[in-house]
Amino acid sequence: MTQALSTLRRYTPARVALPSTGVSLATSEVLAFQLAHAQARDAVHVPLHLPSLALRLQQEAGVSQTLQLTTAASDRAQYLRNPGLGRKLSDASRTQLVHRAYDLAIIVADGLSALAVERHAVETLAALLPMLAEWTLAPIVLLTQARVAVGDEIGEALGAKCSLVLIGERPGLSSADSLGAYLTWDPRVGKTDAARNCISNIRYGGLEPKAAATKIVWYLHEAKRLGLSGTALKDGGIVESLNG
Amino acid sequence: MIPVTQAIRWVATLGAIVQLQHTIGGITYSFRDLKDLLAKATPLRSGDELAGVAASSAVERAAAQMTLADLPLQTFLEETLVPYEEDEVTRLIADSHDPAAFAPVSSLTVGGFRDWLLSDGATGEVLSRLAFGLTPEMAAAVSKLMRVQDLVAAARKIRVVSRFRTTIGLAGRLSTRLQPNHPTDDVVGIAASMLDGLLLGSGDAVVGINPATDNVETTATLLRLIDAVRERYSIPTQSCVLAHVTTQMAAIERGAPLDLVFQSIAGTEKANTSFGITLAMLDEAHAMARGLGRGGENLMYFETGQGSALSAEAHHGMDQQTCEARAYAVARRYKPLLVNTVVGFIGPEYLYDGKQILRAGLEDHFCGKLLGLPMGCDVCYTNHAEADQDDMDTLLTMLGAAGVNYIMGVPGADDVMLQYQSTSFHDALYLRQVLGLKPAPEFEAWLAGEHASRLSEASPLHLTAGAGA
Predict the structure, then answer these.
(1) Average pLDDT, chain A
(2) How far apart (Å, rounded) are the C-alpha atoms in residues B14 and B413?
């Protein structure tokens, strides 16, 4: 390998300038790849343990009240095969939601990476909740086998003006523990992704939980001020509809 | 003597009802229409189960395959799966059908067509002349009766050669798309991946970047980067930035050095609408690329993939593989340089595991070649599918045996922008070595020459300096 090639890794996170033997990759690289894949697979398949998440939220973020619910997907295989089931609550869970006039419903869900929730959800909420003193919060919903859109049904059932779903993102090889935050104003069943704002890549090495919390608060205030979310609510404080 | 299985079928004249059923061991399996029959004859995959169109048992699937085997190919010219009035892809298929090309197989059943395809008489030349006589539905139908070795054996006979600065698809050759993506479209980062790939013999099909941000400025910047490197090191290849077609058209208007126009396409008008495209829009983009005069006849690059129509709720009750084959009718209208299925990208709800991805990749390659396309494959999977590198090695090797035109070249197989695993530069080298394949001839000569050795001394900073990037 030339000097120039060996320095390529400085310029990109991609797997460039890999050690090889013949035309094949060297053992070290094959094993490093297998490990990264194993981590991503575990992120998808290791279940999220709701009771311990509830306990940590209580101890580390001062959350006194949580609801532990399930979606219509009964297990991981069903969840992966039929995304629609992860967008609906199970019948038993639906009856546990009481309609009141809340400002905000926060939902913490496994999505495609329970690891993301375990690593970053508690820290994100510990930073976020103290900044939401003016908001009436519904009990925080903890949920397994969930997709983003389930926040619409939950928000609507709770009578919340806004829903915030913290959910594990589809894991890549280089980031198996990335958390996403999806904000939907006026959540109702049938809303599309165009009605949401997403803060993604919440993890150490990406957008760190404290910084993510600040960003989420900005979106919440803008959504409240404008009475909307989604494509009309742009990052950076500029709203396109006010430009002209 | 009464046969154990007996196919019963009435094919009436044009426009009339086709009744489809098959009796096995005293039980009669009936199929509502062609669409239902095709779906139930499809080897098991999660997307068809999700859509509720799959056979409900393995025996029902076998009965559907037997019924399909006895169906005359002619039936596909008499019954459309999506109404002509409702769907411009159906109109394209019907209006572009060539009866003279179809004549040699017009009297065959679907099962007879499989036998004919695998016979010695069906040479590469004969099959090439047939392409525009076949509809996508005929190709999909026969593929459902084929084992993977049949898909390999039949596809291998067909050579579809396309040309820009390199010649792609010749016998004994395997090309690659160099895919140097970067999570923030950083030009130096992209140049680093380009440099690594080019020196490992990747990029003779195209240097094609998926931008993280779909806008005109980024598209133009990345096109200028590829073009500057290509010119400075006299690399025989072509550029492409895989933004939306309208973004690329805007970049052309701004003078960006675009070689290939890219677009993702699907097999129904409604699915294409969900991609924000129409045939008229593709016609316009194609005309713009011709107007640039940078290449010859083959100026387009298309990607497809089973499941895209269902994910847009635009499958009209068809199985996902039939929808996929219909996308090839869209592609061949433009005599593209490159077409590839992105077979495992969409996720396990469409192709659940390595077995389903393997078969789908070989079906798509076969159907594409049979319909006259210069077919490649993005051999790939996501981390929530039941698949791993062993599955990719298997599909890669079988596609090599099937004569695939090109595969992807991604650094270390890990796309750090799109977050999925494809094939690496090393995977292509492996395939070339074990099967005795070479890159496109122009690129092979370049690799052995002084320009490539000059490039090996360069750094990503050299590549981007003065690239206008």
Answers:
(1) 92
(2) 51
Q: Which of B181, B383, B396 to mutate to test the interface with A (most CBs of A within 10 A)?
A: B383
Q: How far apart are CA A151 and CA A135, in angstroms?
A: 18
Q: How confident is the model at residue B23, as a pLDDT?
A: 95
ipTM summary value: 0.92
How far away is chain A from the Cα of B301, in angstroms, using its nearest Cα? 24
What pLDDT does B14 receive? 39
Nearest chain A Cα distance for residue B397, angstroms: 14
pLDDT of residue A205: 85
What's the pLDDT score for residue A196?
92
Total residues found in chain B within this entry: 469
pTM of the predicted protein model: 0.92
Q: pLDDT confidence of A235, banded at 50, 70, 90? A: low
Low-confidence ranges of chain B (pLDDT < 70): 1-18, 466-469
Q: Compute the nearest-CA separation of B347 from chain A (Å).
A: 9
Q: Does A41 sit within 8 Å of B189, measured CB to CB?
A: no
Q: Do A16 and B49 touch (CB under 8 A)?
A: no
Smallest Cβ–Cβ distance between A15 and the set B49, B191, B414 belongs to B414
Say whether residue B419 is in contact with chain A using an 8 A CB cutoff.
Answer: yes
Is the Cβ pair A81, B459 closer than 8 Å?
no
Contact A16 B199 (CB under 8 A): no
Question: What 8-state DSSP symbol labels residue A219?
Answer: H
Using a CB–CB cut-off of 8 Å, the residues of A that contact B are 2, 4-5, 7-18, 20, 22-25, 29, 33-34, 36-37, 40-41, 43-44, 80-83, 112, 170-176
